[in-house]
Amino acid sequence: MKAFLVIPTGVNAFEQAQVCCGGVDFIELDDSLQSIYQPELYICGEMVDIDGKCGGYNLQWAWTSGYITGCTAAKERK
User: Fold this and answer.
1) Distances, alpha carbon 58 to alpha carbons 9, 29, 37, 48, 55, in Å
2) Residues 6+ apart with CB under 8 A from 10
3) DSSP secondary-structure letter at 19?
4) CA 55, CA 60: separation in Å to the nearest integer?
5) For position 17, what pLDDT does the model report?
6) For position 35, what pLDDT does the model report?
7) Which residues are CB-neighbours of 63 under 8 A, at least 6 positions away?
8) Residue in 56, 62, 76 with CA at minimum distance from that of residue 23
9) Cβ pair 18, 51 in contact under 8 A
10) How far apart are CA 35 and CA 44, in angstroms?
């Protein structure tokens, strides 16, 4: 993924903004959002296939899931 290059060529109007689906299926993660297939790989934010309603729900998911994975990963490193 580090070598995957994407060059944006433009944007649509704000009225066209919408949630995109896709990502890692939630059932492939444990309670700490660690992959059940690859230990020590944490998936959070828009990398998980979770879509919330408009109004900040997607942002809240990004912050909360980032907090959960960050705290768990930091504990494991001690």
Assistant:
1) 25, 18, 25, 11, 8
2) none
3) P
4) 10
5) 67
6) 96
7) none
8) 62
9) no
10) 10
CA separation for the pair 35, 30 (Å, rounded) = 7
Q: Which residue has the tokens 């998936």?
A: 43
Chunk the chain into consecutive blocks of 10 residues (it has 78) and report each block's average pLDDT, rounded to whole numbers. Answer: 84 72 91 94 92 79 94 83
Q: Please tell me the total number of residues recorded for the chain in this structure.
A: 78
Which position has the token pair 């994407």? 6
Which DSSP symbol is given to 75? H
Backbone angles phi, psi at 59, to 5 degrees: -65, -45
Our measurement of the distance from residue 18's CA atom to the centroid of its chain's CA atoms, rounded to an integer in Å, reads: 16
